[in-house]
Write a structure and sequence with these properties.
This protein is an alpha/beta fold. It folds into two domains: 2-220, Rossmann fold; 225-294, 2-Layer Sandwich (Alpha-Beta Plaits). Helix content is 37%, strand content 29%. Strand 12 (250-258) and strand 13 form a beta hairpin. Bound molecules: adenosine-5'-diphosphate. Adenosine-5'-diphosphate (ADP) is lined by residues 11, 14, 16, 34, 36-42.
Length: 317
């Protein structure tokens, strides 16, 4: 459905894309994962015809985006990082305007009404866009991408800047839309990609470092589980208890929280949940556990693990 072949993009001396290739098959929700500055927006802007490439090929449903952009773009709905909204228009008015701009042939009133229902903005149909919350504005952005019912939807970091409730709503909406469309969803948040996507392309410094199913990404980045525990009691005693537990591989104090509690970083093997034995051991000795949270893997950890796994595979050949 989507194919990128050896695409390069230079901004003057800055080489933003260094020959990237990937495919998204029909029905995929493809995650585009990478830190800020990796080249995600550049790639998505090229794919959607907003930006030219320095060299390479890009196809949407077999149509070249460089040679036949008008035809290729008919199959794409795009929500850029900054949604292209007109704040002084009302929601309904704006969607009608986008409909006309796209030269859409579907029955206008009904099509816009259906989209408003899908993205749940019917209640703000008559409101000025500038008066909407960020979450609603993002939905209006998604609604404009849906006009014309394109096969492919491209969302560039659609959850950035939203509050936690809005983030969940947008993620659920994207998953729902994935039942009917091929989706490319960019993000710098690994758990978000794991929740939503079926496949992931990992990009760093303009190079693709992984192209995997979500399951194999999870396998590739498997590592120790990490917890941060806040515990009251003398450091030496607490460390003795923690380190004596078979479920715990390592434990280290990482700082005082207040006058009588200390934070500890605890690691255990990937398949072991140390929380229950940890709680029981501390309770038995009378040292209160006043906080416990999992530490999520950073993107840097993911890159290090992905590249070392790849090197191991190469050496094994
Ligand atoms: P991401 O979306 O992953 O954050 P971008 O595609 O925005 O990454 O940026 C990739 C690289 O290209 C960065 O080094 C960025 O500074 C640079 N870049 C992006 N847009 C431009 C531009 N219009 N002119 C010059 N450099 C740019």
């Amino acid at each position: 459905m989507i194919e990128f072949k050896n695409v390069y993009k230079n901004y003057g001396q800055n080489r933003a894309l260094k020959g990237i290739s990937f495919k998204a098959e029909s029905g995929d929700i493809l995650g585009f994962l990478g830190p800020n500055g990796a080249g995600k927006s550049t790639a998505l802007n090229i794919l959607t015809g907003y930006l030219s490439a320095t060299s390479g090929e890009a196809y949407v449903d077999g149509v070249s985006i460089f040679e036949n952009p008008v035809e290729a773009k008919k199959n794409i709905g795009f929500l850029p990082e900054l949604p292209p909204l007109y704040p002084d228009m009302k929601v309904g008015e704006y969607l009608g305007f986008v409909y006309d701009l796209k030269g859409c042939k579907l029955p206008k009133k009904q099509h816009i009404k259906e989209i408003c229902e899908v993205v749940q903005i019917s209640d703000v149909y008559g409101r000025l866009i500038k008066n909407l919350s960020k979450g609603y504005k993002q939905r209006v952005g998604i609604a404009q991408a849906l006009i014309g019912n394109p096969k492919v939807l491209v969302f560039d970091e659609p959850t950035v800047g939203l509050d936690p409730k809005q983030i969940i709503e947008i993620r659920n909406l994207v998953k729902e839309l994935g039942k009917e469309h091929t989706i490319i969803f960019s993000s710098h948040i690994l758990p978000e990609i794991q929740q939503i996507c079926s496949r992931v392309v990992v990009i760093n410094e303009g190079v693709i470092v992984a192209d995997e199913s979500i399951e194999s990404l999870a396998e590739a980045v498997e590592g120790p589980r990490r917890l941060i525990a806040k515990i009251c009691g003398p450091e030496a005693e607490v460390l003795k208890i923690l380190r004596a537990l078979p479920a715990i591989k390592s434990a280290d104090a990482i700082g005082k929280v207040d006058s009588d509690s200390i934070s500890y970083l605890i690691e255990s093997d990937e398949r072991i949940d140390a929380r229950k034995p940890l709680f029981a051991a501390l309770a038995a000795k009378g040292y209160p556990l006043i906080g416990l949270e999992g530490v999520e893997m950073s993107l840097e950890d993911v890159f290090v693990r992905l590249t070392s796994k790849r090197d191991q595979r190469r050496r094994g050949r």
